[in-house]
Specification:
Layout: E1 2-5, H1 12-23, E2 27-29, H2 30-38, H3 42-49, H4 51-66, E3 73-75, H5 84-93, E4 95-100, H6 103-109, H7 123-135, E5 139-142, H8 148-159, E6 166-169, E7 174-180, H9 187-194, E8 200-205, H10 206-211, H11 213-220, E9 225-230, H12 239-251, E10 259-264, H13 266-278, E11 285-289, H14 292-298, E12 303-308, E13 311-318, E14 323-327, H15 336-353, H16 355-363, H17 369-386, H18 401-410, H19 417-434, H20 440-452, H21 465-474, E15 482-487, E16 495-500, H22 501-514
Parallel strand pairs: 1-3, 1-4, 2-3, 4-5, 7-14, 8-9, 8-10, 10-11, 11-14
Antiparallel strand pairs: 6-7, 12-13, 15-16
Helix pairs in contact: 1-8, 2-4, 3-4, 4-5, 14-15, 14-17, 15-16, 15-17, 15-19, 18-19, 19-20, 19-22, 21-22
This protein binds nicotinamide-adenine-dinucleotide (NAD) and zinc ion (ZN).
């Protein structure tokens, strides 16, 4: 998405039209969208409902554009970038291009000022006030003596190298997920795009630091930085290690002007998220995800967690990052088993909501991980946007997880989460079929893909019926003698049904026979 910003007369519509044909992208004029929707001109909306109402409509319209997968060229209204939320929305899904011009040039260009609200004697003042917001752009083009075609060509030559991220849109903010090969080297400039911190407190997975030391040090040079290594493994997500990190932060005199950067997989991400949410009541966080699991799942959504004696992920917060960076270059050093672990979650998105993703994995052949991460990130972002604080919809992400969690627990977490979920998905699909929801063809495809990808090791033990019954009784999700079960009526679709425990257990008994 390319957003053109600038004062009245800066040429956003004219340049936008030329640019859209140069890039072969559809052109959207936001003001036009609003007037079409409302059925009145902008001066009429201003006169009838006031500027506040117009600004609300503007943000709503921008939101609807930002959420689209298509890449547009968008001309924005002159006052739109003043609201930081609008700038954060634009940054989260695209590139902001400011069409700059001198005030005199603009005045000359606007031949019919009568149709434009706010274009009067106060315009110069307004022009001055808005400058700071306009300057907060990725690309600034001086347009004074240039034709629209010259400006559009200049934009074309400058947008290369600027990533167009995937947005996570929240109720009062938005953040981008940058995905690509070799983009970690740009981390400093990406941070600067969002914030100017005093320094970076980096929590880095020990394996990642060892294997990518030079690249990490090179990318982060030039900024004050404190690095703390996170020992590999789940045991780092402990209360004791959180204390160690906090002590290090205080003794290093980190303050609220610093940011926390987590470089690693889900363990480092959950820790960095948790610590940054409680240190001095919260400092900004950036996730640089280095495992496929973190890139397709754990880095997105703002859930943070540590474990304690009572169980996994029982202590945590919601703390959304400034942005997520998923550089697939890191995946080259990742063990095969970790890739498989994440593939289970990727197939899960395919089954519950994304036929294109399912088809892509099913097609076989070498995977383009950047494409895979982008598809999964879009899916997770979509669910997180609709259910920011896990009110209900996020439950669909638990497809395959009911049985999966039990498999993990009875193995004392020796079985990888992805393997357990893969086995859980086999049961969830089988149950969907048995309940008359999923056709035989769909069941066969899901089974076939999970088996072909060899996601479940031979020694994964499925729970006995009695074991499952015990866990279901304890499960916090079980209420009033039933369990909310995530099922699929067809690939790409999902439904949640409350089933009596007895029905699930009866079905599971049958499933075990055929496993
Ligand atoms: P992980 O962070 O433990 O990483 C797996 C292993 O890969 C580790 O040994 C690590 O040292 C190593 N590693 C990481 N990056 C590497 C690289 N580029 N090259 C080589 N080795 C590398 O595990 P994970 O699978 O990424 O994440 C699992 C964790 O995520 C769990 O603790 C889980 O609870 C959590 N999680 C959180 C959420 C959430 O929404 N917050 C969602 C899903 C999972
Ligand atoms: Zn999972």
């Amino acid at each position: 998405m390319i957003f053109l910003t600038g004062f009245m007369g800066s040429g956003k519509t004219t340049v936008g039209n030329v640019l859209s044909s140069l890039l072969g992208r559809e052109f959207v004029d936001l003001d036009e969208r609003i007037t079409e929707e409302i059925g009145g001109s902008i001066p009429e909306i201003f006169a009838y409902a006031g500027e506040k109402a117009f600004r609300f409509l503007e943000t709503e319209t921008l939101l609807s554009i930002a959420a689209r997968e298509e890449k547009y060229v968008v001309a924005t209204g002159g006052g739109l970038p003043v609201d930081p939320l609008n700038r954060s929305l634009m940054k989260s899904c695209g590139i902001i291009v400011h069409l700059r011009a001198r005030f005199e040039t603009l005045k000359q260009r606007v031949s019919d000022p009568s149709g434009r609200p706010l274009w009067n004697d106060d315009a110069r003042e307004l022009f001055k006030i808005r400058q700071a917001a306009y300057e907060d752009a990725d690309i600034i083009i001086d347009t004074d003596e240039k034709t629209p075609h010259e400006v559009a060509s200049e934009i074309c030559s400058k947008i290369e190298g600027h990533p167009e991220p995937i947005p996570v849109i929240l109720s009062d903010s938005a953040y981008p997920i940058y995905i690509g090969e070799g983009i970690f080297k740009d981390i400093n400039s990406l941070i600067a795009r969002h914030i100017k911190p005093e320094g970076i407190f980096a929590l880095i997975d020990a394996n990642v630091l060892r294997m990518h030391k030079v690249a990490i040090e090179e990318a982060l040079k030039g900024v004050p930085i404190h690095i703390m290594e996170v020992p590999s493994g789940e045991q780092s997500k402990s209360e004791a290690f959180v204390q160690t990190i906090l002590s290090k932060m205080f003794s290093s005199q980190i303050n609220r002007e610093w940011i926390c950067l987590g470089i690693g997989g889900g363990v480092t991400g959950d820790l960095a998220g948790f610590v940054s949410s409680i240190f001095m009541r919260g400092i900004p966080l950036v996730h640089a995800a280095t495992t496929l699991l973190a890139q397709v799942d754990s880095a997105i959504g703002g859930k943070t967690a540590i474990n304690n004696a009572f169980g996994k992920n029982l202590v945590g917060t919601f703390h959304q990052p400034l942005f997520v960076l998923s550089d697939v270059m890191f995946l080259r050093t990742l063990e095969e088993i970790q890739l498989k672990n994440a593939m289970a979650e990727a197939i899960k998105y395919g089954v519950i909501m994304d036929t294109e993703l399912f088809d892509y994995i099913e097609k076989g052949g070498p995977l383009d991980y950047a494409r895979l991460a982008a598809m999964c990130s879009r899916d997770k972002a979509c669910i997180v946007s609709a259910d920011e604080r896990e009110g209900g919809l996020r439950r669909i992400l638990n497809f395959g997880h009911t049985l999966g969690h039990v498999i993990e627990q009875i193995s004392n977490y020796a079985v990888y989460h992805g393997q357990a979920v893969a086995a859980g998905m086999l049961f969830a699909s089988w149950l969907s079929h048995k309940l008359g929801l999923l056709g035989a063809g769909g069941l066969e495809r899901i089974n076939g893909l999970i088996r072909r990808e060899q996601l479940i090791a031979d020694d994964v033990r499925l729970p006995l019926v009695e074991e499952l019954a015990g866990f279901m009784a304890m499960d916090k999700k079980a209420s009033g003698g039933g369990i909310y079960f995530v099922l699929t009526p067809s690939i790409g679709n999902v439904t949640v049904k409350k089933l009596p425990d007895s029905e699930v257990l009866e079905a599971y008994k049958e499933f075990l026979h055929g496993f």
